[in-house]
Amino acid sequence: MTSEILEDLALANHILVNEGVLDGFGHISVRHPTHPERFFIARSMAPALVTPEDIVEVDLNGEVHDAQGRRTYVERFIHSAIYKARPDVMSVIHSHSPAVIPFGVTGARLRPICHMSGFLGATTPVFDIRHSAGESTDLLVSSQALGEALAKVLGPSNVALMRGHGSVTVGNSIKQAVFRGVYTESNARLQAEASRLGEITFLTEAEAKATSDMNDKHLDRPWEMWKRNAQNLSR
Amino acid sequence: MTSEILEDLALANHILVNEGVLDGFGHISVRHPTHPERFFIARSMAPALVTPEDIVEVDLNGEVHDAQGRRTYVERFIHSAIYKARPDVMSVIHSHSPAVIPFGVTGARLRPICHMSGFLGATTPVFDIRHSAGESTDLLVSSQALGEALAKVLGPSNVALMRGHGSVTVGNSIKQAVFRGVYTESNARLQAEASRLGEITFLTEAEAKATSDMNDKHLDRPWEMWKRNAQNLSR
Amino acid sequence: MTSEILEDLALANHILVNEGVLDGFGHISVRHPTHPERFFIARSMAPALVTPEDIVEVDLNGEVHDAQGRRTYVERFIHSAIYKARPDVMSVIHSHSPAVIPFGVTGARLRPICHMSGFLGATTPVFDIRHSAGESTDLLVSSQALGEALAKVLGPSNVALMRGHGSVTVGNSIKQAVFRGVYTESNARLQAEASRLGEITFLTEAEAKATSDMNDKHLDRPWEMWKRNAQNLSR
Amino acid sequence: MTSEILEDLALANHILVNEGVLDGFGHISVRHPTHPERFFIARSMAPALVTPEDIVEVDLNGEVHDAQGRRTYVERFIHSAIYKARPDVMSVIHSHSPAVIPFGVTGARLRPICHMSGFLGATTPVFDIRHSAGESTDLLVSSQALGEALAKVLGPSNVALMRGHGSVTVGNSIKQAVFRGVYTESNARLQAEASRLGEITFLTEAEAKATSDMNDKHLDRPWEMWKRNAQNLSR
Q: Each residue of A85-119: pLDDT tens digit?
């Protein structure tokens, strides 16, 4: 079972690169299926190149437990703190996906513009590291304390933006997190475009909830396509 | 004859993915050539992966008739209701093509900006499911009654937008529907871009009619190119 | 010599598709090297699929002279009329390249924003078929008379826009015409983008002239790259 | 050691094309590792096609020293003058990357919008050749004197825009220069997009410095991915 999860996690890395959510940076993790106080994440490397053999195990304080002594991303604390704060979360993505960044540095709020992104719900909070660590940081969530500050801003939401940096997306499975990562970026593109045409009718809260529940039943459909696309790419 | 139509329908799925009209979701159908009270559509799956063997038969109330008992898309009622209301329609596309969505959620109206999209005609109606089913739906056209409400908004037009969801495009053949699907998306991109440069001179109604008639004579030309592109992609 | 020109013309078709200037429609022609009252153009087909064997010969009134009796594009008169009016022109492109269309339907004028597009010169005229043929045409330049009206608007310029339709670009060789086709589209993209940031400092007329002369010395450099890209694509 | 540098330089050409920084024009150079008064740059050709065998040696006055008598780019003086003025600089890129050009022709200033582009620092100067050579040039930096004028405007910055032309980016290694070239273009895209959503919170100067230092520790990560992508492309 674990080996299947590691393969899905490697594949999810490739899908997220292929769909424009990750580039040379960013990461996705998955909680350990039987030891919920641990999660899996690739060692420090470009997501496009991750294989199951590159994945290490980390605990909820961000401590790496790896027999080979390998290191992982400086920002593993994004993951450890969110898994600690949110027992419902089984997978976490941190990305710099490009359409989302403008919403993190302006007053504009990311909201669900269509039925594919109902999971954005009523609010998409913005984490500004300046409020936790001042105005001269390197913007990285490089400690458990900063991870906890981010997790607090995230609260019960599925997505939080990070000012001048990117965003974090969570799900109850790898497939749900990947779906949300792809459609968070898509919603940002559509919302930016629509905002230039006129005032936008967003989903109501009830529509957001209903569409999110509905999409959860169809996660396999895009996954199969993204999987094929990612596999074609790496041939 | 039927087997050729099923091959064309599978190919149309691939073309629409390749040209950016469909992604992991959306569907295209074609009316049965000799039993006009039936239509063909793929079973519930990502359009990029559809083969002729994946296609099922549905009646104009949205009932699936399949010897293997396979299911198709929840939103098959978009197709069944339109075929019922519009005897002239032989093919229907439902998509979430990205440039069109902003026009469905703002006051901006999609209108023909150049000779390739004269089929948009004078008006492109917008269907808002809230008017039929209230403010807390999952936005899916998941019953014959909702399909009929959509078909009523579509009226005699070739394209109708769906608020917060996507659009529907119809044609008197697979090739015409695919042409319209591709150029509806293209028109939306061009119109959004032009609207930022200044006031737009749209086609007159007479120009829209004349260009639409003219393009109907040249449907094979882009089809051959799109076919080659789609086949290259899936090699 | 003629066979080399036919190969270059077929290649130019593929390059222009590959670089986003042509899609399933549009065409490029070249004047006959030894019979200046004739030009070569593909038969009526998608540019991506053109081979040297698909090219026919046309005279300056738009009459096709083909032993096999093949037909070419309805809009061959764009080419015939321009070759007739402009003895300096050796190659003509008609395209619907997408970034240019918005400039043809708004008051915004296309002007050279950087040194690659100095050939645009001081003015880029706009041809509106309504002034020649009224408000209910199919927008096609489908007669020698309409071609002459277009050629008159083009005058001594290198590029003319066509309202609600596309544009025409001319050069003293296939390579120069292709260069200009690619960079007309590029300039339109850059100008649209820059116009949202603030008032634009365009090239002066003297800069436009000097940069255009300078680029004419380097036409082989991008051609070699575009050639390789187009050949990779069609493998 | 030199042969490794030539291979990296050829690869850097391909990476920059593949990532959209260079097209048929533009160039990257590297200072000679043991003779700091010389640098390496490709002969005059499209960057996508450069191999280690195409690289020539140039001195800091822009004089080519090549046993085979090959010539290089007219604009080699961009490189020679910057290496002369900036002993810290080991690699120089000159590009026409598209998102940057609008910032060079409007009053909008390019500033770091996220942690990947802290190297832009507090100011991104704009070089206008009109101030050095008047209003009728071909905009090329085609002499050592013009190169020195550009180097003076660049000053201690990492990036300078060139009005109506492009930009120059410098680094203390090929990898750093390539990283900066890619993320200068990325920052321009993000900043243009964000400027339409509202007022932008840019990085503080201290954040710009800290993020730039931090990214310098991770230059290998995207390089490995860009390398693989470039190699896949040229297969």
A: 999 999 999 999 999 999 999 989 999 999 999 99
Q: Which residues of D touch C216 (CB under 8 A)?
A: none
Q: What pLDDT does residue C235 have?
A: 44
Asked if the C-beta of D200 comes within 8 angstroms of chain C's C-beta atoms, the answer is no
Query: In angstroms, rounded to a whole number, what is the distance separating the alpha carbons of residues B15 and A100?
Result: 29
pLDDT value at residue C234: 55
Q: C28 has which bridge partners?
A: C93
Nearest to B138 among A198, A211, A222 (CB): A211
Among B99, B97, B86, B90, CA closest to B177: B90
C neighbours by CB contacts (3+ pairs under 8 Å): B, D
**Low-confidence residues of chain C, pLDDT below 70?**
1, 233-235
Complex-level ipTM: 0.95
Neighbours of A63 (CB within 10 A): 12
DSSP character string of B100-142 = THHHHSSSPPP---SGGGGGG-S---EE-THHHH-TTS-S---
Active site residues of D: 75
List chains touching B (3+ CB pairs under 8 A).
A, C
DSSP-assigned states of every residue in C77-121: HHHHHHHHH-TT--EEEEE--TTTHHHHSSSPPP---SGGGGGG-
Please, which residues 15-44 of chain C have a Cβ atom closer than 8 Å to chain B?
23-25, 44
CB D226 within 8 A of CB D15: yes
Question: For residue B103, which residues of chain A lie inside 8 Å, CB to CB?
Answer: 197
% of residues, chain B, pLDDT over 70: 98
DSSP-based helix, strand, coil % in chain B, nearest 5: 45, 15, 40
> A160 φ, ψ to 5°?
-130, 135
Displacement of CA B31 from its chain's centroid (Å): 13
**Nearest CA to A49 among A95, A1, A4, A16?**
A16
Q: Which residues of B touch C103 (CB under 8 A)?
A: 197
A138 phi and psi angles, rounded to 5 deg = -90, 15
Q: List all residues of chain D from 141 to 160 with a beta carbon under 8 Å from chain C.
A: none
Tens-place pLDDT, residues A46-67: 999 999 999 999 999 999 999 9
Give contacts of C 98-127 with D, CB under 8 A.
Answer: 113-116, 118
Contact D98 C222 (CB under 8 A): no
Instruction: Read off the pTM.
Output: 0.96
Minimal-distance CA residue of chain C relative to D46: C221
Query: Which spans in chain A are helix H?
Result: 2-18, 76-85, 101-104, 130-133, 144-154, 174-195, 205-215, 220-234
- Cβ atoms of B73 and B96 closer than 8 Å: no
How far apart CA D200 and CA A131 sit, in angstroms, is 17
* Whole-number pLDDT of residue A233: 62
Q: Over the Cα atoms of chain C, what is R_g? A: 17
